Amino acid sequence: MVRFEEVGVLPEPGDNVAIASRRLEAGIEVQLDGTTVTLPHTVLEGHRFVVAPTSTGDALTSWNTAFARASRDLVPGDYVCTPTSLAAVTARGVEGLPEVPSATNEPLDPYELDESALNFGAQVTSVEQPGTFLGYPREQGPAGTRNHVVLMATSSRSSGFVTELARRFDGAAAGDGVVPVAHTEGGEDEVPNNLHFLLATLAGFTLNPNVGAVLIVDTEGDVVSGEAIKNFMAENGYPSIKVPHAYFTRKAGFEHDLTIAGALIEPWLPVVDAQQRQEVPLADLKIALQCGGSDAFSGISANPLAGQVSAELIRHGGTAVLAETDELIGAEPYVLNNVRDLATARRFLEIIKSFKERVGWHGHTAEGNPSGGNVYRGLYNIVLKSIGAARKLPREVRLDHVIEYGEPLPGSGYIFMDSPGNDLESVAGQIGSGCNLIFFTTGNGSITNFPFVPTLKFVTTSARYERLHAEMDVDAGKYLTGTPMADLTAETFDLTVRVASGEKSAGERAGHSQVSIWRNWKQVGPVEGISISTDGRMSRKLTDLPAEDRDAPLDGLPLHGLISDSRTPTELLRVDDRLVPEAVGLILPTSLCSGQIALRIAAQAELEKWAGDAVTRMVALPHTEGCGSSGGASEETFARTMLGYLLHPNTRMALLLEHGCEKTHNDYFRSRLVEAGADPSRFGWASIQADGGLDAVGEKVKDWFSSFQLAAPVDERGNLGALTVGLEARGPFSDATAEALALIGREIVGSGGSVVLSSRGALLAHDGFRTAAFGSAEPVGPTVAHGQRFVAPGWHVMRMPGTDWMETATGFGATGVQQILAHVAGGTLSAQRFVPVVEFSNDPETVATYGDDLDAVATGDAAEQARIGLDTIAAVASRRLVPKAVASGNVGFQITRGLLGTSM
């Protein structure tokens, strides 16, 4: 028998549901209000149980807000579980659970504002003597908490460039260091729908107080260019950039441009390094409030603590910025409990309405926000998640302003910024608005960090803090074990000032970071059969939608194309039961938050040869998906793409690395592999959170790869018929080149191999290519969905929802493509991390300007160009030639969200 205080937490007096503070097995007896209650079912830590009799249909409450309705009469001790939460726990193999749910989710009815009930209170009282911290004064605004040289890509086309450029300045004396801002946006041929958000965020990055100097890098032809950012700033009244800065456009070879850009940066380094911290007012602190990997205790310990520290900062004249719009849906009454004026309240609700509409265009509601990790850790639905998230706004603190994503901060106080629940995308907007420090609250132990703004991570429970102490900064769980909130607030406020003054945060000590800006969305308005109706239901099932909209799988059978009898010899590798050009050791992050860690681990595994001679190289594939993005069609495309790499013919050993709190965790992919007919025991499995943090998970990955005694691959002679090749053309190309590419495809297919084309690519749009490849200029349709593995070799067309090059290359790889041959004109392409990208050109101007980046120059008639292309493919497949883009470090990887994907 245990006392309730030992095993349960009541969010607020008057609630009829409590939170289990540890796992409670079925049959345990709990002393509750003088009576003994026996729990009939297992209740996991963070899940809820009834503490007061509740009749069928009555509200179940936390923080005196209804989050669910009783499905039957409930008595104290009954486990509260909704269909979603019960399914999530059952999927994890938990025993002792009820057979049927006991509750249903509270409907997300539109919130009706009662203007007469609004409280237009005063902001929290100011302190008599405002405090200070040691920061870097800036001519254009508040002081910085850090002093970085920032290399900023305007679009994804330059992300590989700024990453490599920053790497070459590792360890340079330059204030707090040279860091890249590499992201996935703006890389398509057309104007992106998120253009305003993208320009606002990038403009804000250049003016962020933590930036001591900035190089703005674009590529010729970018829609989102340095000039576009400059014009946006002028048109919207932004101040001029006062720190050392320059705009740089890539116009020549990769190495050439690295040298020129590096020469621009060199003079800035001593200037930035010479700057000294000075005493500046705490009013210059602008805190970005974020949460990720939330659990049931986020609203009890970490979020209230972050809110109280923010309130104290506001008393000193500082600013706190709340974000994640969809994670406040259902908590509108709480947020508007204390607001500056009626206009601010109305603006907040307009933002909520706009977000719901945008998500509805893609066939989703905010109910899709909670991740699998959220639900497993006790956040059954968006209402519970939202109320807990809103606790970062203390009841006594007034909401002062409401702004758009990346909009400059309008003043001090407490501000709400529109953004998705996707942590990294939301953080980027806050940094673009001017925040110079991040409070990140987490239940599971999210390890995310930003390149030039330090992150303080508050973890909700002491047990999780102990497990991940090297990655966390604040143990908010001490509140659950008796430490007064006032004491924790004072302690954390002191830490905040110290970190603002230069003390490194846990994330900075770990040395990793990521940037993801609010991603582009395809749908721009209501679409029949896709959009959510006003009652929150879809007008028809997803399976009823057009196949292209939902990116449904196709039959995977090849097209009837032309072939040839010619053969090009190639030196391949015999690996197990197949001939392949290479044997890859793959570390595949299951979501965006484990991506950068996977990269670091793969680099170490490559250097130290963890897999011995069993693999030819180690690869990690960081991306932006798996958490903070919508489900449905987009999730299906994502999962299919991931499976394509796990089951790729070049993959010899593969380990999945989960963050631990994402939608698509390790268990998710175990079930997906079983559905695909694969044996999950063939793969390695590791978890950053569950395995104890970065060092511990790195050792686990090392042990897994090192445990095998696989023989080294054996050289064996073959031909191009053993390969699957993607063919692509970017920029203008001649009729002869079109025919040459067709001839290349004809030999590969005629030899028994496969060729994959993009449905949106220039090759299929060319009459001459179609005639030379298929014997007719008639249009051809896709044979496989994006990233779908085909069932028989031959000519294939992959459905492509957009024109982004890296998303195209990533889709190619998931189909089984082992090499991409691309004809380029007017510029070159980034390589893909997994699939070698071979670039050649027949265009004289391109050869003259970008010759150093080309793997081959195609000269002569169609037959001669084809022979050059085939010989180059063979050289790369035989490992005699490393593609230039790969060798230079100009690499990337990005998964598409398709037509229906959106950030949540």
From TrEMBL:
The keyword Protease does not apply. The keyword Ion transport does not apply. Residues 283-521 form the D-galactarate/Altronate dehydratase C-terminal domain. One of its GO terms (molecular function) is lyase activity. One of its GO terms (biological process) is D-galacturonate catabolic process. It holds the Pfam family GD_AH_C. Residues 135-270, 586-699 form the D-galactarate/Altronate dehydratase second domain. Keywords: Lyase. InterPro entries: GD_AH_C, GD_AH_second, UxaA_altronate/galactarate_dh. Belongs to the UxaA family. This is Altronate dehydratase.
